[in-house]
From TrEMBL:
Keyword Membrane in record: yes
Transmembrane stretches, start-end: 16-34, 40-60, 67-86, 92-114, 126-148, 154-174, 186-209, 215-242, 339-361, 368-397
Alphabetized UniProt keyword annotations: Membrane, Transmembrane, Transmembrane helix
Protein name: O-antigen ligase like membrane protein
Provenance organism: Nocardioides scoriae
Superkingdom in the source lineage: Bacteria
Amino acid sequence: MTATVLAAPDALRRDTLRFVTVIYVGVVLLQRFSVPNQPVALLLPLAFVAAGWGLARGLLEVDDRRLLAWLAASGATALLIPFQSYVLDRELISFTSWGLFMASWLPFVLRLVDRRMATYLDVLRAVVRISVVLAAVCVVMVVSQYAGLAYHDWFADLVPAPLQLGGFVITYPISYDSPIYRANAWIGLEPSMVSLQLGLGLVAALLTGARLRSIALLLAGLVAATSGSGFAILVVALVVMLLSPVRTVLRRFLLPGVAVVLAGLASPQGQSIAGRLGTGSGVDPSLGLRAISPYSYLWPTWSTDLSLVLFGAGPGSSQRLVDRSGILGLLVPTPIKIFFDYGLLAGLVLAAFILVCFVGGPSRTLSLALLISLWTLQPGTTTMVVVIPVLLLVAWWSPRADSPALEDLYRRRRERRRRTGRRALRVPSGDGYADLTDALRRHP
């Protein structure tokens, strides 16, 4: 543990909480903003500003392992570009795409100075509070439409066009010819992005033992967003939690959760979600456009040319080919972005770096949920609204400073209760907090 943590633990904990919370709020509020007249999210330069400020204030430090991994990935892919430009179709290669990729992941070479579990729990509670507000706005957005107030994109009216990030479907009806639009809280880049944020908030609420009304409101917000992204996060998280001692915290949420889910499924939004989850093939369904169609479209091009398999088609090539396909909504998942663009040789180095960013975080539940979402459903390599939550909830907390993973702490509590019959688990103050039971039960 660093001298800074030992010298002023309370002040550092408070400053770290404020620092991470402000960034997370910025991700929610600013996700639709772009760099003026550029197709680049404003969140990217703001991430660099935040990282620089954190370094200057002593809240962040360099992680040597991830720095070396980033240098290896950027070096391997950069050295490949001249060869690709000489041998392959230059029209498909974009040096800007490579720069954007590596810049988006450069903040991952840092880590927080205060990575104690107590501080992490504080951050999770802050995420819950932010997500509850976001869920409430989503519910208001849908209820207002049922009350007769038609959806209107106020953001597009109030924010100058050069500051609006394009290339995303801001929102659309819950079903064909329906007057009700999916909730994006008016500020969301897409309903799927808002759904992902609500899913993360719901997982954080379960891990910290939030109030039942917070859980219910977050579930209602997920239904209002009418997207499977948040539910995918939740399903993965529940599987991980059920396979670990943290499953004990789920008991009191079981009946209320089932009631809210059944009520949601009875709504038009819930029926739309259920219908979408049942379709994973074809060109039109959202799930197919994310998880199946990109592979079926690009696989014949990539697999039949050994040079493409080994060396890739060049940075940005997968996106350019997808854009030429004429298939509306077709996305480029992370595996395609890596291996189609950079091939197996450099792609494996790049993939290894990204995977390292998910290792050693405080919560296996959040790490695995975000990893699976990033690699299967989200165009997450340069979409900052997806990348930054990985930074704030996983990578910057790795390696863990003073304790095992959050899920393993429940095993400690259970073992101590078996030995002593006491419900409270006293943990030495040097571990970062004195009473785990109290820490886990404090509500946001």
